[in-house]
Amino acid sequence: MTTVLTRAELHALVWERPMTKLAAEFGLSSTALQTLCKKHEVPTPPCGHWMKKAHNKPVRVIPLPPRPSDGTGSDRILIQPGLGLAVSPAAAAAREAVRAGTEPATVSVPAPRDRLVDATLAKLAKAKPDAQGLVSVRGAGVIQVTARPVSVDRVGVVLDELARAAASRGVVLDAREGSARFEVEGETVTVELVEVADKVAHTATPAELQALATWEAKQEADRKRYGHASGWGRPQIPKWEERHQGRLAVRLEEVRVRRDSPWGPAMRRTYADHGRRKLEAMAVTIVAEVVAMAVTKRENRDADERRRREAEEQARRRAEAERRAALEKRRSAALDELIVEHERILQLERYVIALDAALSGTEIPPRVGRFVCWVRARLDHLKAEMAPAAFEMRLESRGLFAEDE
């Protein structure tokens, strides 16, 4: 539902609680709420404001300017749910609820490792590297992982954090029936952990340099001998290459927001190390997205069912319209036929009258007499077919004008 606030009311709200929580209440993305505040010149708390306030440190509230500086701004702010959200307000609220949840208290004794994580690491330790130097595990009973052997220890740290964040928020990490997946209130979201390759500058190998030198020497020899060189077949040394350097990523299954279209926008499904922000620090964010995906998958099913019912109703209406059109066509054909028959009766009646007048007072030859009798019988037959009982039978046999039409 659209909310209407004054600038002063919005200013009070954004300084009362964090933007992410407030945005979720309005059914917006935090970016959309920031944009609204900027548009209407409503100051927002700086980074670290809520951390300082949580630790009872002094904070400064930036006062609200009297009006937007250009003088064109309105004091009424319309807030429409869904603005800036790829997902529905319900999915966004579920995501924010997980992010806002408190972490379980840290204890000095390490928590027991999740059995699924333990089984995954045990199988990973026995795996043989492939041609790229990567080891991988997949299948029932383990989480799908692909990484270098030197990254296995950190894989364990990431999986531990994921399992811990999921368990603390009521999300189950399971792999009993094939690929590992998160389970949230009956919905599942598959997950895998991979080591992604980085694009780095390529350093030419001795073999590449030797091949290039040999080619250049041949070109020079051709120029000296023939006066020219073809220049064809120069060995190419790539400028970039992909190299695994320990950067890990979590990949979730692809979930599209299909409430408005069967091919709606895809939700974020990949989380990877980026600069100083490591994957293990994103565990809560990943679980929050999993919960949002679960809500979205439920909504997708409802939307698919709604579209299915709408398609069936449209098909039913089309079929009914086609049936009606076909029925009208048959009725029109029957009417044309009856008009022709009626005109035939009128013609015959006029002909019989004229025939009687022509033959009156004269001796009628045998063949003419028989012809007159036949014409009268033909006229009587046509009239009988137009009688109500016979007319009803004709319409019934053709399936016309029944009560259920």
* Count, helices: 11
Uncertain stretches: 103-110
Number of discrete domains: 3
**Structural class by sheet pairing and helices:** alpha+beta
User: How far is it from the N-terminal to the C-terminal residue, by CA?
Assistant: 44 Å
- The outline comes out as elongated
Largest sheet: 7 strands, mixed
Write structural notes for this entry:
The chain is of the alpha+beta class and 405 residues long. The chain folds into 3 domains: 3-85, no CATH class; 115-308, no CATH class; 323-397. The chain has 11 helices and 9 strands. The protein has helices at 7-14, 19-26, 30-39, 49-54, 89-100, 115-126, 152-168, 206-226, 283-359, 366-385, 388-397, and strands at residues 3-6, 76-79, 135-137, 144-147, 172-174, 181-184, 187-201, 240-252, 270-272. The strands form 2 sheets. Strands 3, 4, 5, 6, 7, 8 and 9 form a 7-stranded mixed sheet that branches. Strands 1-2 form a two-stranded antiparallel sheet. A hairpin with a 6-residue loop joins strand 3 and strand 4 (144-147). The longest helix has 77 residues, at 283-359. It is elongated, with a radius of gyration of 42 Å. The two termini are 44 Å apart. 20% of the residues are buried. The model is unreliable at 103-110 (pLDDT under 50).
